[in-house]
Amino acid sequence: xxxxxxxxxxxxxxTGFRLIVDNAPDMLVVGEAGDGAxxxxxxxxxxxxxxxxxxxxxxxxxxxxxxxxxxxxxNHTRILILTTFDLDEYVHxxxxxxxxxxxxxxxxxxxxxxxxxxxxxxxxxxxxSVTRRLIERYLGSGPAxxxxxxxxxxxxxxEREVLVLIARGxxxxxxxxxxxxxxxxxxxxxxxxxxKLNLRDRVQAVVYAYESGLVRPAIP
Length: 220
Prior knowledge:
Layout (H helix, E strand, L loop, with lengths): L1 E6 L3 H12 L4 E7 L2 H11 L3 E5 L7 H10 L6 E6 L7 H7 L4 E3 L4 H12 L7 H11 L18 H11 L4 H8 L3 H14 L5 H10 L9
Parallel strand pairs: 1-2, 1-3, 3-4, 4-5
Helix pairs in contact: 2-3, 3-4, 7-9, 7-10, 8-9
C-alpha cells in the first residue's frame, strides 16, 4: 500500500482528497495536517510514502514544511505540492526546497492517483506546459549566467541535449522521438545526468538547466 499524508489548512479539502485516495485499491491515507509544521512532524513519525502538500497555509506554509521534510535524511517521503494557480509564487520555492513536483487542485482524480504512483516510484510529476511557464516566470527575469557550473562539463553532448529537452518540458517519449532513440535509452541518459549533477529528479534538472544558463526562457 502507498501511504499518503494530507497537508492542507482546509478540512473540507482534506476530506475530498481522503475520499479519492482511500478509494484507490493500492493507497491509504495515514494522517492529516493543518500546516507545514504539523506535516513535517507527522512525516517524521509516520514515514508516509507521499505527502500531498498545500502551498498556502497559515503559520508554517507548504514551502517550509517541504524544506523540513526534505532536510530529514532519514525520511524518504516524496512531496507533491498542491496549488490553486499554476503560477503560484511559492511553487518554485517549493521545488527548490525538495518537492518532487506539483499538481493543480482541480486535477482529475485519476491523474492525482497516477501522480502519487509516479512519485512513489522515484520519478517526478510536473505538467510540461506548466513547467515552461513556471520556470520562465521565476527564473527568466535575472541576467544570464556567464560561466556555466563545473559539473555541467561532466555531461556528454547527448546528455546535455537531453537535459535541454527536459527543461523545455518534453516527456521521455517526446525526447525519444526528437533525437531518434528508444525511450529506454532516454531513461538511461536521464539517470546518468541526474547522477552526474547530483540531482534528485527531473524537476531539479529543469531548475538546474535554467539556473545554470544552459537554457534561457523564450523572449516574448
